[in-house]
Amino acid sequence: MWGSNNSTTLSNSFVDWLQNSNFVMLNTSNLTCTSYTGTNSLLDLTLCSTSIYHQVDCFVSDSTFESDHNPVITTWSLLGQTSKTIKTIDWNSIMKNTSEILSSTNSDLHTVMHKVSGIIKQNTKHSALPDKAQPPFMIKAHFEETISEEFQDYFIIATDASKSHIYTSIAGTSDLRSFSFRIHPINSIFTAEALATCEAIVSSRQRPSDLDRQFFSLAST
After folding, report:
1. pLDDT confidence band for 102 (50 / 70 / 90)
2. Model-level pTM greater than 0.70?
3. Residue 64 φ then ψ, to 5°
């Protein structure tokens, strides 16, 4: 379900529970953990209620911050956009400086602890997590929801055009038919895009029952 190659009794029980619950998993196939042996796995699972699924965004940051787990960033649109930070600690520097203090001082315990606390503070910082656009599955879900709710009397015609120094071509597809043609290379890419859209509309009118329907054309350059 979440891209793991291993199956256990516990994981199977979790899947059974999830499929009968009001929760949905937000994870994609992006791995979240890398062990010291270099083995990658997806250990960190994120769930949300089905009622807010289309309002929640979740992605795995590629910033490890010296941990074997990658940060999993989850946002809810109703809470607004806020900056995201993570606390990082340079343990190597802390251990080195602490060892030097312990081996070179005759101070009392209170003084030693004060120095060690200062070293920890100096080697601790808050780093900003990088922002990331919505993952493809979220964009797809939002798009399909908008089409089903706002464009019930429409159907999609996807068109495209391409041009090289030798060829100029157009293509299109819908639930009715698909087409692709080469046109004279003298045509510009803009002319080709317009022709592809016109061809798609003309082709869609070949079915009489659709003559009174409206058409929603997506043209990409």
Report:
1. confident
2. no
3. -85, -30
Who contacts 180 (Cβ-Cβ below 8 Å, separation ≥6)?
169, 170, 171, 172
Using CA of residue 174, residue 180, residue 181, residue 185, what is the dihedral sign?
Answer: positive
Sign of the CA dihedral running 102, 107, 109, 114: negative
Between the CA of residue 21 and those of 18, 29, 106, 132, what are the distances in Å?
5, 21, 61, 29
**pLDDT at residue 133 in the model:** 56
Give span(s): CATH 3.60.10.10, the chain: 1-82
Provide the CATH topology of domain 132-220: Ubiquitin-like (UB roll) (3.10.20)
pLDDT at 206 over 70: no
Q: Are 43 and 36 in contact (CB under 8 A)?
A: no
Q: How high is the pLDDT of residue 161? A: 92
Amino acid type, 199: E
Q: Average pLDDT of 88-114?
A: 81
Under CATH, to which class is 1-82 assigned? alpha beta
CATH 3.10.20 residue ranges for the chain: 132-220
Answer whether residue 219 shows pLDDT above 70.
no
Q: Which residues sit opposite 62 in a β-bridge?
A: none
